[in-house]
Amino acid sequence: MTEYSKFHYTIFLDMDGVLADFDRSIEENDFLRSLRESTKFLASNLRKKINENKVYGEDWHFKDLGTILKGPQTDADLDRLKRKFHFTKSKTFQFASEPGFFINLNKMVDADDLVYEVTKLSNGKLPHILSSPLESSKTCIEEKREWIHRNYGGKVDQVFIEKNKAKYSTLCLGNGIIDLRNRNILIDDTPKKIREFIEAGGIGILHTSAESSLTELKKIINQD
After folding, report:
1. CA separation for the pair 224, 219 (Å, rounded)
2. What is the rounded distance in angstroms from the CA atom of residue 127 to the CA atom of residue 155?
3. 202-210 LR contacts (CB < 8 Å, sep 24+)
4. In the predicted model, what is the mean pLDDT of residues 180-207?
5. How many CB atoms lie within 10 A of CB 18?
6. Which of 23, 84, 125, 164 is least buried, going by the fewest C-beta atoms within 10 A?
7. Whole-structure pTM over 0.85, yes or no?
8. What span, in angstroms and rounded, lies between the C-alpha atoms of 198 and 166?
């Protein structure tokens, strides 16, 4: 961002899948790894039917299957996939709900680079953390806050554990007045959260790696 930019940027980073390696901890469980792999394999084999079925066409993410296959499925294969997807998700969340799961997550291999470069691109302004709680876990919120404190204390600003991330898409100055000079950016690995953030007026970057997210962030900042 140059000093002449007419916009100010507030950047929010997701935790799971962006800073903390949620998937690695799941895949260390043999049963869950096998279950996820078989579900993804079935989805891949049914890609043609899925593409014809719903709104995303060919440009869909595995995490979107719950939305794509929402409601009754008249096709037996898609109904089987829907049930398997929800079973996999429920078993994954059941495992992640155990006390100690979130506090013991490893960092993503490129998480430190992401935090450092985001801060640098923001002229030293620290990013916020915006992470969804796992509602089935009694210790999730406390553990997430502690994980951030242990791993990024002093390197990030505020920590928000919030299901509705879209409410942070704009900066309100009070009395319903929106600061149009401030651009709120969310870096998140869940397509649905990104879509909702954008629809609410923010800027979303779908995270697959620090390198890809930083490339997109630079484009956004440099265009101003």
Report:
1. 9
2. 8
3. 202/166, 202/168, 202/169, 202/170, 207/14, 207/17, 207/18, 209/110, 210/108, 210/110, 210/111, 210/113, 210/114, 210/117
4. 90
5. 27
6. 164
7. yes
8. 8
